[in-house]
Structure formats: structure tokens, C-alpha cells
Design goal:
homodimer; alpha+beta; Alpha-Beta Plaits; four-stranded antiparallel sheet; 3 helices
Chain lengths: 107, 107
Amino acid sequence: MKKGSIKVSVIYPNSEGKKFDMDYYCHKHVPMVGSLLGDALKAATVEMGIGGGAPGSSAPYAGMGNMYFNSVEEFENAFGPNAHEIMGDLPNFTDIEPIIQVSEVMI
Amino acid sequence: MKKGSIKVSVIYPNSEGKKFDMDYYCHKHVPMVGSLLGDALKAATVEMGIGGGAPGSSAPYAGMGNMYFNSVEEFENAFGPNAHEIMGDLPNFTDIEPIIQVSEVMI
């Protein structure tokens, strides 16, 4: 993604007994978000946690979803009106409270 | 990045009084890592934290660096022999202890 783009990451911390349905996330949630955000969303990526820094350790995060926008303003304008519907879908695939990180792409 | 690729994220949690020299990170550290890992490293990205989920909130993470590999084995073979030199460079740009996440690219 080009330098200066805005990356919004939704990061799901792992903890014992928590659930995360990666199949639903990839095949229902992410397409729904893409459809709601429309052209403002330049790209989306999803990763599943498989390990940590030490060999054999568990992943700090069960999964991450990343959305790219041209600017914070375009993100806010696209996300704001759909926030309720998007956040309302979370219980369908997880009981983890996500961490939201807004970043600027440097490299 | 194509589905099934391995993404290794080095994530620097923000906290008061901690330092993170993004200029050194982008212009010295990341190129050094790229040069040490060679062809095994398929791509690298860097993001700087600029905000959190709530308007005006601070970023949970000061920065993130992401490295992409074809497999966990290729990552381990490339990183292992260089781990000492790479980790030894951290005090040159930060006093934050990073979180390491190994992920599989789903989308």
C-alpha cells in the first residue's frame, strides 16, 4: 500500500476460553464490511494468528483484519454511518473485544 | 500478499515515556533486516500509530513492522542466524519490548 495511506487494524487478542470463528469472519463479516464501506475501502487483508516469538508459543492475537483508506477523513466518513451494523455483527463470530489501531503507512 | 503466506509482525505497544525513533526504524533498521534476511523475505511493511478506535484517542501501538515469508520454515531459517544482530539493534531506536505475532495470510 502506498506511503501515506491510512491502515485501520482490528486486532483480536487471544485469551483462554475465547472464541473466534475465522470462517465466518472471512466469508461473511469481511465481505459485509467491504460492501458497506464501498469505494472508500481501498483494500482489506485478514491474518490468522499461528504463533508467537518463542518457538511453540501461542499467538498473542487470534486474528487481525486490516482496512486501507486514502485518508482518516475518508475512513471516518465511510465507517461512521455503518459502525453500528458492523460492530453488531461481532457477536456472530467472536466474544473477544478487539483493539482498534489507526496507522499511517510508512513503508 | 497471497493466501497462505506467513506474516511476522513486530508490534511496539505505546506507553507513556517510551521512545520510538521512526526515522531510524525506517531508514536504518528495516533496511538492515532486509539485507540480512535476503531472498527469504518476500516483502516488508511499516506503519506508524496515529490513533485508536475512539476519536482523539492515542494509538495502542507506536508502530508495527511486518515481514512476509513463503513458510514458517523459511522465516526461521532466515531469521535464526541473524536474530542476535537484529535484536541487538533495537536499543538504537526504542526502549519498548515488542510483541511478536506469527500469522497466516487468509485474505
